């Protein structure tokens, strides 16, 4: 027993030597270590066995206190936390589902509103187009009537102008013949001749 | 501790009665005292930490919950759905050892996990529990595990004793691993602390050199923090592995 203790000390010392090569004292001291037996193996000492009995009692008490009181307390806190987290997650999941529903509704309402607005816009544009068309037609009709009236007026004026032109032509022709020949020509001959010439010229 | 040129690296593991005559009569040494301190610390950590019962935890509550989740996951992932039943046991085991390892690093304190009697008791408790659970869940089929499936019958006289030996060595390795790690760490701390004192006795050069072991002890303290957590974890995870084999059909 003493030998093993001494050898164990020497082994420990030899393990420590590389750590402290700068300490020559150690090398001198190590062999001088007291070669007493290990107190742990001195079973004649009643305290060595006494601590085992005490240790058994203390370990048992510690085990009972831990398993019945301390550890269930920790477990209760951990369980309640897990439940709290699960509940919160459930609430969050429900809230998310509600929010998703609300977003869907919002999108639906937005789509409906957009469709209505588009329909309104289309209707307004169509109305505007139709009214513009109607106005154009009215305007065209009025203009056509005016053009027609104007044309009638032009034709009347032309007719009137052409009528007086015949008379002037007759008188001019009679005057020319008298001036040139000195004889007067009967009015109906002049009229017939002028008529003939006018027709030949498309008047 | 260190007198002259000798180092008493093992004196720190001696057990002394505390509380005077009462301690002597009840065989109550500093070791059970630290067990109580460790247990109170673990319980206080959970009770004080979980007092706010907040949905969004504060720092201490988050730490308590992380510890709970860590062991709970370890138990359920390793053992399986049946691990829920063993979770309080694994939790107790892990934090009893962890608190013991860490309390032992405080000055004037004592690491009860550095006593082989304590670690053997813990390992035997795990071993006996796993055997009881095995017998309860598997019945007589439990003994069939000592004959590896598919091995030729002719090898049974060789294999069965080996399997039994390896099974029985579980509590030994489990206890010695924790015990040896804790003892080695505390012996190292003690020795380097003693070097500082011895070097300081050499005068001016010694004073300068004495800084060396202190620096090493700071590094060792960091290492011991790692080892303390690691050994508690190893003990707990091996317990889970043994229990998984016990509940497996």
Automatic annotation (TrEMBL), chain A:
| Alphabetical UniProt keywords | ATP synthesis, Cell membrane, CF(0), Coiled coil, Hydrogen ion transport, Ion transport, Membrane, Signal, Transmembrane, Transmembrane helix, Transport
Q: One GO cellular component from the entry?
A: plasma membrane
Its signal peptide is 1-29
User: Which intervals of the chain form a coiled coil?
Assistant: 92-160
Question: What is its subcellular localisation?
Answer: Cell membrane; Endomembrane system
Q: Which domain of life is it from?
A: Bacteria
What is one Pfam family matched by this protein? Answer: ATP-synt_B
Q: Name one GO molecular function term.
A: proton-transporting ATP synthase activity, rotational mechanism
Question: Is Coiled coil there in the keyword field?
Answer: yes
Q: Which parts pass through the membrane?
A: 45-66
Tell me which InterPro entries the record gives: ATP_synth_b/b'su_bac/chlpt, ATP_synthase_B_chain
Q: Could you tell me the membrane topology recorded for this protein?
A: Single-pass membrane protein
* Principal location listed in the UniProt entry: membrane
PANTHER family, per database record: ATP SYNTHASE SUBUNIT B, ATP SYNTHASE SUBUNIT B', CHLOROPLASTIC
Q: Which family does it belong to?
A: Belongs to the ATPase B chain family.
Q: Name the HAMAP family on file.
A: ATP_synth_b_bprime (MF_01398)
Quaternary arrangement and interactors, per the entry? F-type ATPases have 2 components, F(1) - the catalytic core - and F(0) - the membrane proton channel. F(1) has five subunits: alpha(3), beta(3), gamma(1), delta(1), epsilon(1). F(0) has three main subunits: a(1), b(2) and c(10-14). The alpha and beta chains form an alternating ring which encloses part of the gamma chain. F(1) is attached to F(0) by a central stalk formed by the gamma and epsilon chains, while a peripheral stalk is formed by the delta and b chains.
Describe its function.
Answer: F(1)F(0) ATP synthase produces ATP from ADP in the presence of a proton or sodium gradient. F-type ATPases consist of two structural domains, F(1) containing the extramembraneous catalytic core and F(0) containing the membrane proton channel, linked together by a central stalk and a peripheral stalk. During catalysis, ATP synthesis in the catalytic domain of F(1) is coupled via a rotary mechanism of the central stalk subunits to proton translocation.
Q: What is this protein called?
A: ATP synthase subunit b
UniProtKB/TrEMBL annotation, chain B:
Q: Where does it reside?
A: Cell membrane; Membrane
Parts of the chain that traverse the membrane: 33-50, 85-104, 116-137, 149-168, 189-212, 218-243
Query: Record's Pfam families?
Result: ATP-synt_A
GO CC annotations, alphabetized: plasma membrane; proton-transporting ATP synthase complex
The entry's keywords:
ATP synthesis, Cell membrane, CF(0), Hydrogen ion transport, Ion transport, Membrane, Transmembrane, Transmembrane helix, Transport
Against InterPro entries, the record matches this protein to: ATP_synth_F0_asu (IPR000568), ATP_synth_F0_asu_AS (IPR023011), ATP_synth_F0_asu_bact/mt (IPR045083), F0_ATP_A_sf (IPR035908)
| Record carries keyword Ion transport | yes
Q: Name one GO molecular function term.
A: proton-transporting ATP synthase activity, rotational mechanism
So which residues are the signal peptide here?
none
Look up and give the membrane topology term: Multi-pass membrane protein
User: Which PROSITE patterns does the entry link to?
Assistant: ATPASE_A
Family the entry assigns: Belongs to the ATPase A chain family.
Q: Which HAMAP family match?
A: ATP_synth_a_bact
Q: What does this protein do?
A: Key component of the proton channel; it plays a direct role in the translocation of protons across the membrane.
Know the name of this protein? ATP synthase subunit a
């Amino acid at each position: 027993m003493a030998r093993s203790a001494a050898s164990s000390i020497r082994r420990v010392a030899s393990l420590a030597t590389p750590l402290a090569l700068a300490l020559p004292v150690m090398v001198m001291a190590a062999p001088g270590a007291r070669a007493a037996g290990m107190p742990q193996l001195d079973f004649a000492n009643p305290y060595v066995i006494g601590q085992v009995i005490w240790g058994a009692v203390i370990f048992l008490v510690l085990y009972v206190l831990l398993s019945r009181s301390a550890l269930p307390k920790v477990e209760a806190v951990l369980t309640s936390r897990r439940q709290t987290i699960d509940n919160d997650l459930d609430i969050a999941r429900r809230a998310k589902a509600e929010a998703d529903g609300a977003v869907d509704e919002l999108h639906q309402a937005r789509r409906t509103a957009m469709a209505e607005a588009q329909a309104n816009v289309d209707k307004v544009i169509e109305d505007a187009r139709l009214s513009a068309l109607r106005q154009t037609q009215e305007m065209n009709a009025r203009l056509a009537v005016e053009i027609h009236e104007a044309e009638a007026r032009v034709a009347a004026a032309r007719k009137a102008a052409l009528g007086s032109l015949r008379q002037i032509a007759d008188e001019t022709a009679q005057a020319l013949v008298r001036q040139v020949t000195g004889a007067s020509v009967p009015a109906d001959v002049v009229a017939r001749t002028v008529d003939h010439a006018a027709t030949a010229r498309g008047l | 501790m260190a007198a002259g040129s000798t180092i008493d690296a093992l004196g720190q593991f001696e057990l002394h009665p505390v509380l005077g005559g009462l301690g002597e009569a009840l065989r109550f040494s500093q070791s059970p005292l630290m067990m109580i301190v460790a247990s109170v610390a673990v319980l206080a950590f959970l009770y004080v930490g979980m007092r706010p019962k907040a949905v969004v935890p504060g720092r201490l509550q988050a730490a308590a919950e992380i510890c709970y989740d860590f062991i709970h996951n370890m138990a359920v992932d390793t053992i399986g759905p049946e691990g829920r039943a063993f979770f309080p046991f694994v939790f107790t085991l892990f934090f009893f050892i962890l608190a013991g390892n860490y309390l032992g690093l405080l000055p004037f304190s004592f690491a009860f996990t550095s006593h082989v009697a304590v670690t053997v008791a813990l390992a035997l408790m795990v071993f006996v529990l796993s055997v009881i659970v095995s017998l309860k869940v598997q019945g007589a089929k439990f003994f069939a595990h000592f004959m590896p499936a598919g091995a030729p019958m002719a090898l049974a006289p060789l294999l069965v004793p080996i399997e039994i030996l390896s099974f029985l060595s579980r509590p030994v390795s489990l206890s010695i691993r924790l015990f040896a790690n804790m003892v080695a760490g505390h012996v190292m701390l003690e020795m380097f602390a003693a070097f500082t004192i011895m070097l300081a006795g050499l005068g001016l050069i010694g004073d300068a050199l004495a800084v060396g072991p202190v620096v090493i002890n700071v590094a060792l303290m960091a290492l011991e923090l790692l080892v303390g957590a690691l050994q508690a974890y190893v003990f707990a995870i091996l317990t889970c592995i043994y229990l998984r084999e016990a509940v497996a059909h």
